[in-house]
Design a protein that fits this description.
Cobalt-precorrin-4 Transmethylase, domain 1; alpha/beta; Rossmann fold; 3 domains; binds iron/sulfur cluster; 4-stranded parallel β-sheet; 10 helices
Length: 292
């Protein structure tokens, strides 16, 4: 069994910086993160061990206490509410999420009806749309029929969406609203694009791909979906201990990739465990080995 690791995989700079910020702040005084800093259980365990609390609504955070907005960002409305409550808010919004906010604001200011391609209910999408109550969230082609009639649509996407699918949805909006002006600004972040591109190279040769990342991590699930779309077997794990040798008995070439919130150590443990499996001959081959 041969193991190949994708050229780009795992933790992005936005998540890395947010974790470093949380650990630094928590070392100074108690810190509550407003939601999951990242959708990865290994990272969350590490932060809990450092004394970091999580509270999605922030209702448990008293005035004067410190809370942190995650890399996924938040609306202006949320920022203002935090300020009004007297909470000391630290902002770990990724600069590329901030760019998506700026682009949507600019489109609305220019008279475009706001459309966000992304996962409805995802914390980043909530943050992007909360300041624009009329904004439409398009999760799939099926949602396009529900767009209200407008003369100008301004379209951006959640930063972790697959660019191919985003472009497909934009093309479909243009086709179904031929009389309207549709302006698309690409806000898929570069680390997401790099991981998707690197996975395509892996899929060209691998029969099985191990995808490491949180079960509720959107970009990890997109990597799994890309494997399935290419007709490859995807083994989605959050940590190395979940892998069993039996699952790789027939695998010839195993690719490895990871979502943007996965720690490098977690990926290294997964690769080490796969290498261990590769050194063990499958049981059928062991039976064929003549006894000395
Ligand atoms: S996935 Fe992209 S947008 Fe999200 S934190 Fe990482 S770099 Fe920033």
């Amino acid at each position: 069994m041969k193991i190949i690791v994708a050229e780009h995989f795992g933790m992005c700079f936005g998540v890395r910086d947010a974790i470093a910020k949380a650990e630094r702040l928590a070392s100074e005084r108690p810190l509550t993160i407003l939601g999951e800093l990242v959708h990865n259980p290994v990272v969350r365990e590490r932060l809990r061990a450092a004394g970091v609390e999580e509270d999605r609504t922030g209702s448990s955070v008293a005035a004067g206490a410190r809370a942190m907005i995650t890399a996924h960002g938040a609306s202006d409305r949320r920022h203002a509410a935090l300020q009004a409550s007297g909470v000391i808010a630290s902002d770990a919004t990724c600069p590329l999420v901030r760019r998506a906010h700026q682009q949507l604001k600019a489109l609305v200011a220019a008279g475009y009806f706001p459309v966000v391609i992304g996962k409805r209910g995802h914390v980043e999408v909530i943050g992007l749309t909360e300041d624009f109550p009329v904004a439409a969230v398009v999760e799939s082609l099926a949602d396009i029929g529900s767009l209200p009639p407008q003369s100008k649509y301004g379209v951006i996407s959640q930063t972790t969406q697959p660019l191919d699918r985003v472009r497909e949805i934009v093309a479909a909006i243009k086709q179904s609203h031929a009389d309207a002006e549709v302006r698309f600004v690409d806000t898929v972040c570069q680390p997401t694009k790099d991981r998707q591109r690197a996975l395509r190279s892996v899929l060209a040769v691998a029969d099985t791909v191990v995808v490491v990342g949180g079960r509720n991590s959107n970009n990890t699930l997109q990597l799994v979906a890309a494997c399935h779309a290419a007709g490859r077997r995807a083994v989605h794990v959050e940590r190395a201990e979940e892998l069993s040798a039996a699952s790789f008995a027939d695998a010839q070439i195993v690719g490895v990739t990871a979502g943007t919130s996965t720690l490098p150590d977690t990926v290294a443990s997964v690769v080490a465990r796969l290498e261990q499996f590769a050194r063990i001959a499958p049981p059928n081959q062991q039976q064929k080995t003549p006894a000395s």
